[in-house]
Design a protein that fits this description.
Blueprint: H1 3-8, H2 11-88, H3 91-100, H4 112-118, H5 121-134
Length: 135
């Protein structure tokens, strides 16, 4: 509407025009609010996907630390069994018995150096505690 047309309107027509504009403003504000809420929900979904990925990475590191601790434990049990067998003079029998469950199991001591370089039992326990504390 041009200025000339606005000047020709009487008071009641101007009030109606203002009411119409007010309703349009209210409608647009409501639409804006809905759009903001939808955007916020989408951002929360994106953040939760990131959180899930981070949690999966933390769980993965926890499992790696637990596996290293379990490997150290098994290695220590094998070493102790081999030492006891050597003391008893039955080294060959004990080692064969140890490998009986899994023929491809390494001899005690083969992975000692490798595992000791990666992590000690105390470090593995500390890593497990840290991973649990972070959650």
């Amino acid at each position: 509407m041009t200025d000339k047309e606005l000047r020709k309107l009487n008071r009641s027509e101007l009030l109606e025009l203002m009411l119409e504009q007010s309703r349009e403003i209210d409608r647009l504000q409501a639409e804006l609010e809905e759009t903001r809420e939808a955007l916020q929900e989408r951002n929360l979904k994106i953040e939760s996907c990131g959180s899930i990925a981070e949690a999966a990475a933390e769980v993965n590191s926890l499992f790696h630390a637990a596996q290293r601790a379990a490997d150290m434990y098994i290695l220590n049990v094998q070493r102790i069994c081999a030492e006891k067998a050597a003391e008893a003079g039955k080294t060959e029998e004990w080692q064969n018995a140890l490998r009986g469950a899994d023929p491809e199991m390494e001899k005690p001591g083969e992975r000692d150096a490798e595992l000791e370089e990666t992590i000690s039992p105390e470090d593995a326990a500390a890593e497990n505690e840290e991973a649990v504390d972070e959650k």
